[in-house]
Amino acid sequence: MTKTNDMTIGNVGRKIALFFIPVLLTSALQQIYSFVDTLIVGQGLGDNALGAVGNMGSLMFFVFGFSMGLTNGFAVTIGQNFGASDEKALKKSVAASIRLSAIIAAILTVVSLTSLKQILILLVTPEEILNDSLKYGYVIFAGVVATIAYNLCSAVLRALGDSRTPFFAIVFSTVFNIVFDWVAVFVIHTGVEGPAMVTVLAQVISVAICMRKLRTIDIIRPSREDFAVVRATDRTLLKNGIPMAAMNSITAVGCMIVQYFINGMGVEFTSAYAVCSRYLNLFMTPAQTAGQTMSTFTSQNFGAGKIDRIKEGLRKCLVIALVSYVIFGSAMVFFPDLLAARMLQGSLQISLASGVLRRCGIMIFAVDILFVIRSCCQGMGKPLVPMASGIAEMVLRIGVIALFVPRFGINAAAFAEISAWVGALLMNTIAYFYHISRVGNGLEYRVSRKRAFHYNSN
Question: Would you tell me how many other CB atoms lie within 10 Å of the CB of residue 441?
Fold first, then answer.
């Protein structure tokens, strides 16, 4: 059997560090690719093309965020079974995850491709960039299957404590992405559809690398019988997967409404906001990684009934999030003009992006902490509060942007983000202390083991 990483034993700090570092490098490479992709598009095709690609961001998050939340939710169940050393349940969970993911991939592909143009029109996409947004979007959404396949493979590997294989996969795909993006734009002169094609091909490479490793892990290799539909298995997976998927998509709806207001201001504002979104995603990476680490660490230790390790792990992941804030929040507050000028050419666009970056940088600690605490709740198999917090984020984003945009313009987007982060953080913090106290008293854990017994007996 290929070695897995049991996070229920050993030094907590060392286990978290060994898992965190490869995941951080993986996420950083993904964000670096996204950053370089934006840079290549902006410098090679101009600010309008950059705006067209950036305009797709919230819609892509809606679709891909749903699939990522779904597979991450599946991974919580897989991680709990692994932590409980239940090989039979583990194989059934993996098989059912594959089957359910395939169904979701087919549905998302059809829906996204057939509704793309109408959604972009509803988002008041400027005429100058509508055609490029469509070209980019059709290619990206045609590759939904590859994206979901990678999300599932990497989520299963992380649930088993393997964060290195997804890292190696992203190393290869990132190099491929950067090299051939440059070739597509500067040599072949394809336009925005070239980088989109390269992105899909890179995902296929990542899937192949992860699949090669998964085939060597005996304890998760399902038999034909394991693929038989078992309602109890599907319910358990969907109980964790659907709320996490819905949380991401609900959050994306709020982002799409923000994009709607930004698009209504003009293409210069769309381009500036696209750059701000790129930087926010990049600078959130360490805290998001700490959250992914916390989810895996919590799910395994919750399955093993080791609650004190969950608390200790949370403290260490919060330290990572706060260090991330000090470093990247400072960059956004003190050097926003320099950051904006790296990807934008127009002085107006640079000025607009700088204002949003500075304001978000002051409060980005809220979302950094949110990633960790929310992931801990999800790892304990409590996805409903995070989903409810996603609804709160959406309401706050929409309410604040609608109320403040007439007075503050594009800076209202910064206020919308900050209010969403703070509101969601408060909800998830309350939920964490409630559930961890019940777990500590044995209430939640006894219920979870009773459910697990019923699930395995089926």
Answer: 11
Token digits for 192? Answer: 């925005």
Q: For residue 344, which phi and psi values (nearest 5 degrees)?
A: -110, 155
- Report d(CA 266, CA 93) in Å as an integer: 48
Q: Return the closest-CA partner of residue 337 out of 323, 320, 350, 321.
A: 350
Find the range with the poorest average confidence among 34-38, 217-221, 383-387, 448-452. 448-452
Share of the chain above pLDDT 70, in %: 95
The position carrying tokens 């070739």 is: 183
What 3-state class would DSSP assign to 359?
Answer: helix
- What does the alpha-carbon distance between residue 68 and residue 150 come to, in Å, rounded to a whole number? 9
CA dist list (Å): 186 to 42, 140, 175, 445: 12, 20, 17, 57
330, 333, 337, 341: CA torsion to nearest 10? 50
Quick check: 398 and 336 in contact, CB under 8 A? no
Task: Report the distance separating Cα 170 and Cα 158, nearest Å.
Answer: 14
How many CA atoms does the CB half-sphere of 282 hold within 13 Å?
21
Q: Tell me, what amino acid is at 365? A: F
pLDDT in tens, 260-292: 888 888 888 888 888 888 889 889 989 988 998
| Angle at CA of residue 314, ends 88 and 370, nearest 5° | 105
Structure tokens at 62: 């809606």
- Residue-by-residue DSSP string for 419-441: HHHHHHHHHHHHHHHHHHHHHHT
The SS3 of residue 314 is helix
